[in-house]
Structure formats: C-alpha cells, structure tokens
Design brief:
This protein has 98 residues and is mainly alpha-helical. It has one domain. 61% of the residues lie in helices and 0% in strands. It is elongated, with a radius of gyration of 14 Å.
Amino acid sequence: MSGPVGAATGTGQADAVASGRIATSPEDVRRQSENRPTATQAASQGDDPKASAAPSSEDKVSQAKMALQRAVDLNAKGDKSCTDAVRQARELAPQKDR
C-alpha cells in the first residue's frame, strides 16, 4: 500500500500524520518542500491566516484510511481495540446524504 496509509504503519507515524508533521495532501508536500509547516502545523501555531484548524475533506479521507489500516493491523494481531479504530474511521469518513 502506498501513500500516508502505507507509510503510517505504526502509531508513531500515524500520530505524525495526524499532527501534521507528515504531508497528507499535495499542498502540504509543496509547503514542506519550501521548508514551511503543513497547513495543520501552521494553523496550530497561528502562522498562516489562510490555514484552517479543521482538516479538509481530503485530510479526513486520508485519516479515515489510516484508521482503517490500523484496524486491519490490530485485527491481524487479535487486538480487540481494532473496533475503536473502525469507529474512528467511520467518524472521519465523509457521510453521504440518505
């Protein structure tokens, strides 16, 4: 698996993605290549007035995918906390109108 989901196989890496230290969008990649903080980091530091503290829908999808991968990994180990990761993924995933 590639991208942030494949890269974030440990909780330390997942935490780094969630906190904005690892780029999860093309804009964050550009920011990091220019030695600027990701949008999440800039918003939390108050450095970028355009940056929003709320994650974009693309960021939420990336985080939901990471949570699902974490659930798969935990389930493979027989860890019952995989249900918490599934619940987190459901909360992050975009909801379709019914």
